Amino acid sequence: MSTEFKDRFIEIYRANIKREGSEKLLDYLQNRCDFFTAPASTRFHCSYEGGLCEHSLNVYDCLKSYLETDRAKSAFGLEFSDETVAIVSLLHDVCKIDTYRTSMRNVKDDKTGVWSKVPYYEYNDTLPYGHGEKSVYIVSGFMRLSRDEAMAVRWHMGFSGTEDQKLVGNALHMYPLALALMIADCEASSFVEERKDRK
Questions:
Q1: Domain limits for position 27
Q2: For residues 65-98, b (16+ Cβ closer than 10 Å) or e, as one string?
Q3: For 22-47, what is each residue's pLDDT tens digit?
Q4: CA-CA distance, 5 to 136, in Å (whole number)?
Q5: Distances from the Cα of 52 to the Cα of 56, 75, 134, 148, angstroms
Q6: Helical (H) or strand (E) element with 110
Q7: Phi, psi of 164 (to 5 degrees)
Q8: Could you tell me the pTM of the whole model?
Q9: What DSSP designation does 40 have?
Q10: Number of domains, the chain
Q11: Nearest to 186 by CA among 167, 162, 160, 164
Q12: Is 93 helix (H, G, I), strand (E, B) or coil?
């Protein structure tokens, strides 16, 4: 794994996130879990070593860019601090730490017909607490989140989750940061990372 993404993550984190407990959380991410080596998914976006960190940075870039648009400014009429933007984007998917393990499977080469063992990521969630709510739970164990931040992280999956659609719609309407984070996450995973994977 390249240290480029890890170094950038830590630089953004330390420059923006200053609240009590933030250094303990960063120590946890660096030394006591696989955040910087984990993939972001098993086979979709950033499904390779270090993909989770890279995806988090992509969401950060997309969220910052989106919140600076005239459309977002007029729609929300709100400004979010650099700390809040960094927290929700960099930490929205900490629920994925320690949930992917490398396994082996047999794959047949179409040209030669020869079978070989290849590594792949297997999903193995040992803390089945949901998705967004699990990220809120983990982060809250180290530092306090504002309600806007907690709601944004909790609902960043938007309508792609299994929750009641009306509940999701209400949450996104009541908490504009949740809508903005959902948009940034979708842009990062469906466009920025998909285009990169095609190259």
A1: 3-198
A2: ebbeeeebeeeeeeebeebbbbbbbbbbbbbbbb
A3: 999 999 999 999 999 999 887 767 77
A4: 23
A5: 6, 30, 16, 23
A6: none
A7: -55, 130
A8: 0.90
A9: S
A10: 1
A11: 160
A12: coil
